[in-house]
Automatic annotation (TrEMBL):
Localization (cell): Cell membrane
Lineage of producing organism: Bacteria, Pseudomonadati, Pseudomonadota, Gammaproteobacteria, Cellvibrionales
Domain MacB-like periplasmic core: 31-219
Record-given protein name: Lipoprotein-releasing ABC transporter permease subunit
Membrane topology of the entry: Multi-pass membrane protein
Domain of life from the UniProt record: Bacteria
Cited InterPro entries: ABC3_permease_C, Lipoprotein-release_system, LolCE_TM, MacB_PCD
Transmembrane segments: 26-52, 275-300, 320-341, 348-365, 385-404
Organism: Microbulbifer halophilus
């Protein structure tokens, strides 16, 4: 006979269906529902955690791949920025540094106007701190310094708002804080669009690149200049930035890091991950504890069988393990199949959503509202193991009460009431 005996009987109970026995059919039906609920809960939680991992990855690698980890500024017009860049890049915590001139401006094409952040960059150094080159044609950055006229690189969202295409011209307008006769002045310059980048992030809606000298001219030579930094450890950006500021001459240097510009987004992603994970875990718990109702009905249905086993010498421990084995089978099968479906879903969800968007001509995520304009996913096997293990553990815990009730069945009373 199959050993151990409790597992053998528990597995028989889990799979047995008596023909014509309504109670046995109902037990089997409820057991199936419990397993399906567990499968869906485990699969859904793995997919959700993978999607949240994907958003976290896109923030780190795509958004912060284009934007710097930290930037150090100075409003003085007499700073030797190449020298400051070289000094900062020599620090062991700094991977790369590049000078930048940032200007808040308005872009105008015909009657269309939109605000944007203009970054004046050095084409030779910007590629060290930013992966913007991955979204551009190889010659686009060099075209910014074309002597024939000023060039600008726009995010696709800006280009769509203005209705401008590559090769066309637009105007950039920068308000000036100075006044002349009580009227505010403004700097205006025309630019040719040399390229339009699509990073799939919110930067497509707000970022434009021009040559360093053009940005300086737009800003009127005042303020906005700085050095962008790419750091070894982005999570320590604020502390590293403060250290670097202390090493610079006391000339009113100041700075900010990614946590001040994108920290809220990072915190929102982490909070959403935790909250959604908790909600889906509750779904798994509900599905797992459906096993309780299944096993309670089995115990009621098998009173006579339990009594016969007890009279044949089965111990209370063996009776308890019999029903734990039945619940464990439901949990094991549900968690295993759910884990497999969750892995497959995590690997396919990005392409699946993109296919639905293409088929129906809709876009679920837009970069002017969400961090990215597509649904990212990153499967982590540690998450799979955690979710599958949690599903199995909750199923085992759910078996304890009905198993204890079964082990306390009194043979004489059960046989007398059944027969």
């Amino acid at each position: 006979m199959f050993r151990p005996l409790p597992a053998f009987i528990g597995l028989r109970y889990a799979g047995a269906q008596r023909r014509g026995d309504d109670s046995a059919g109902l037990v089997s039906f409820i057991s199936g529902l419990s397993m399906i609920g567990l499968i869906l809960g485990v699969a859904l939680m793995i997919v959700v955690m993978s999607v949240m991992n994907g958003f976290d990855r896109e923030l780190r690698e795509r958004i912060l791949g284009i934007m710097p980890h930290a930037t150090i500024y100075n409003s003085s017009p007499d700073i030797d920025w190449p020298a400051v860049r070289d000094q900062l890049s020599a620090a062991p915590e700094v991977v790369a540094a590049a000078e930048v001139w940032q200007v808040n401006a308005l872009a105008r094409k015909g009657r269309e106007v939109t605000p944007l952040l203009v970054q004046g960059v050095n084409p030779q150094t910007i590629v060290r701190v930013s992966n913007i080159g991955e979204f551009l044609a190889p010659e686009s950055l060099d075209a910014l310094t074309d002597p024939a006229g000023g060039g600008v690189i726009l995010g696709r969202g800006i280009a769509e708002k203005l209705g401008v295409k590559q090769g066309e011209h637009l105007s950039l307008i920068v308000p000036d804080s100075s006044t002349d006769g009580g009227r505010s002045a403004a700097h205006l310059a025309g630019f040719r669009v040399v390229d339009i980048f699509h990073s799939g992030t919110a930067l497509d809606q707000s970022l434009a690149l021009v040559d360093w000298q053009q940005a300086q001219s737009l800003a009127g030579g005042a303020g906005g200049a700085g050095v962008q930094l790419r750091l070894e450890n982005m999570l320590e950006a604020n502390w590293i930035m403060r250290q670097l500021l202390g090493q610079l001459p006391a000339q009113n240097f100041y700075g900010n890091d990614w946590s001040s510009t994108h920290g809220n987004l990072y915190q929102a992603i982490q909070m959403s991950r935790n909250l959604v994970g908790l909600l889906v875990l509750l779904i798994i718990a509900i599905a797992a504890f459906n096993v309780v109702s299944t096993l309670v009905m089995v115990v009621i249905d098998k009173h006579a069988d339990i009594a016969i086993l007890r009279t044949m010498g089965a111990s209370t421990r063996e009776i308890l393990l019999t029903f734990v084995s039945q619940g464990a089978l439901v949990g094991l099968v549900g968690a295993a199949i759910g884990g497999l479906l969750g892995v497959v879903g995590s690997l396919l969800v990005t392409d699946l959503v993109a296919g639905i968007e293409s088929l129906f001509g809709v876009q679920f995520l837009k970069s002017d509202v969400y961090p990215v304009d597509y649904l990212p996913s990153q499967l982590q096997w540690g998450d799979v193991a955690l979710v599958v293990g949690a599903g199995l553990l909750l199923s085992l815990l759910a078996t304890l009460y009905p198993a204890l009730q079964a082990s306390r069945v009194q043979p004489a009373a059960a046989l007398r009431s059944d027969y």
